[in-house]
Specification:
five-stranded antiparallel beta sheet; alpha+beta; elongated; BirA Bifunctional Protein, domain 2; TATA-Binding Protein; six-stranded antiparallel beta sheet; 3 domains
């Protein structure tokens, strides 16, 4: 029997047995029809390998992000079940696969279309019987009725029934995103499901099911395959004639409820009268199980009628009152779950921050070690420079050695020509922006210290004039010593200064009489 169904997709927690079921690697009582072939995107081995490879990547991402191992109870696999029509193929599912992978940051590892499950509908009574629950396929490929323990009773006469196939697809995908976060907890919310249902209906060109989200109503619990079949069985059981044994069991349960309620003697009396009446009907074989339960339900509603609505003063039915407290309990439980999930999320983030802090501390330690190493290298380099670039300015005769004038030092500092000046045991120490002058113990020479590889001629000239001003040396007294490069530059500077003196009397007189003026004129 060909049928058109409304589109639907729902997602449940899964494990590797879902993959085995999808690719029909395990036997199943529900598989009964063989006239149409199933379709599989991957075989068992390929699907399991893809799942394990992807799970390994996402587990490592979680451990790197949080610094902790993935918890054992984490949902690592999810399964989406999609309603289909007979004409749908794997090609029709590819947009849905891409949508799930893109919006959930996941990876689909197994896809299967099943055309071997369904139900039988009696042509006369419209009674429904479900594969795997009411009938199974025998070894001879024929269909047989079974009891609740799957014991074969008799062969099904297919001429009395219409076959209604349950065309559907299974899509198994990772329950963790690429950062190792749980998809079910962080991404699967009501708004997402509403959009997903819209997309599936449009993609498969099927009529969309009722939108509880848009109607702002609570969706009923989605029954899985097993529960769905149990409901069908229950409907048939309800049509059976009631037995005294059934009535006793219901009466016992009802009395327990009355006791919890704190019922009065009159309530028990009314129940006894009802039970007596129902027994008579059972003896006359005029009462089904469904009718018996309905009568007992009416009685329970009357017992609860002491509770009334505020606006209408009408009694509150038992079922509605129970639903009210059930909803309150569900809301409280949901709120508690949200808080626990929030706590869990914050704990994960805290773990990640601690791991990040540990990484930064380790990096800081390495940088400090590198800094210490570089400082040591700089010291060695400076030492090497000083050893390989020596610069001394020496007095040849020292005919004119004078003590410095404190006023001159103050003025030089004020004008920014020197930065520091001090004396120790009569030796002079001077620091400028470009170099340092350190007088030796014999007071006949100054060592010129620099941080760079060498001094320019202008800097050498400044050093010579500074020494001449502070110690009163004549240009003819000065002899450079040190590396070849320094001596060559210093001799050029000394020749230049002597030529300036020789060709400019005014310069020469000022140079001999007032070295400070010449120094300031130059610098």
């Amino acid at each position: 029997m060909k049928r058109k169904v409304k589109s639907s997709i729902h997602i449940v927690k899964a494990n590797i047995y879902f993959i085995l079921h999808s690719v029909r690697a395990n036997s199943s009582y529900s598989v009964v029809f063989t006239d149409e072939k199933n379709e599989y995107l991957y075989d068992k081995d390929t699907a399991l390998k893809k799942f394990r490879d992807e799970l390994k990547k996402r587990r490592l991402a979680y451990e790197k992000r949080t610094g902790r191992k993935l918890q054992k109870h984490t949902v690592t696999l999810l399964s989406a079940i999609v309603n289909l029509n007979q004409e749908h193929t794997l090609e029709d599912l590819k947009p849905i696969i891409d949508y799930l992978e893109k919006t959930l940051d996941t990876k689909v590892v197994s896809v299967a279309i099943h055309r071997d499950e369904g139900k039988l509908v009696n042509k006369t009574t419209s009674e429904e019987f479900y594969s795997g629950a009411d009938f199974i396929k025998g070894e001879d490929e024929k269909l047989y009725w079974v009891d609740e323990y799957k014991n074969i009773l008799e062969q099904v006469n297919l001429e009395e029934f219409e076959i209604v196939k349950n065309y559907h697809a299974h899509l198994e995908f990772l329950g963790l995103d690429s950062d190792g976060r749980a998809i079910k907890r962080n991404r699967l919310h009501k708004y997402y499901f509403s959009k997903l249902q819209d997309f599936v209906a449009e993609t498969l060109k099927m009529e969309r099911g009722f939108s509880y989200y848009k109607a702002n109503k609570k969706a009923p619990k989605r029954l899985d395959v097993k529960e769905f079949k149990e409901v069908g069985v229950a409907k048939r059981e309800g049509a059976k004639l009631a037995r005294v044994k059934d009535l006793k069991e219901e009466n016992k349960l009802l009395r327990e409820e009355l006791k919890k309620l704190g019922a009065q003697r009159e309530d028990y009396a009314k129940l006894e009268a009802l039970v007596k009446e129902l027994k008579e009907k059972i003896k006359q074989k005029d009462l089904t199980i469904a009718e018996m339960i309905a009568e007992l339900e009416k009685y329970k509603q009357k017992i609860y009628s002491k509770y009334k609505y505020k606006d209408t003063d009408e009694p509150v039915p038992y079922s509605e009152l129970a639903e009210y407290y059930k909803n309150r309990l569900n809301k409280a439980s949901q709120k508690q779950k949200e808080l626990l999930d929030r706590i869990k999320y914050l704990e994960d983030e805290n773990g990640a921050l601690k791991a990040s802090k540990s990484d930064l501390e380790e990096e800081n330690k390495k940088l400090k070690e590198e800094k210490s190493y570089l400082e040591e290298e700089i010291k060695k380099l400076k030492s090497f420079i000083m050893q390989n670039y020596r610069a001394e300015i020496t007095c040849k005769t020292c005919r004119r050695v004078t003590e410095h004038n404190p006023y001159v030092v103050v003025k030089l500092k004020k004008e920014g020509l020197i930065e520091e000046y001090k004396q120790e045991n009569g030796r002079m120490f001077v620091k400028t922006k470009e170099f340092e002058l350190e007088e030796k113990e014999d007071k006949k020479s100054f060592q010129v210290k620099v941080d760079k590889s060498e001094l320019s001629e202008e800097e050498i000239e400044k050093a010579i004039l500074l020494i001449m001003e502070l110690r009163g040396w004549s240009i003819n007294d000065i002899v450079p010593r040190g590396s070849d490069n320094f001596v060559e530059k210093a001799n050029r500077v000394i020749v230049k200064l002597k030529m300036d003196i020789a060709f400019n009397d005014d310069f020469g007189n000022n140079f001999q009489n007032n070295p400070s003026a010449i120094f300031r004129r130059k610098f």
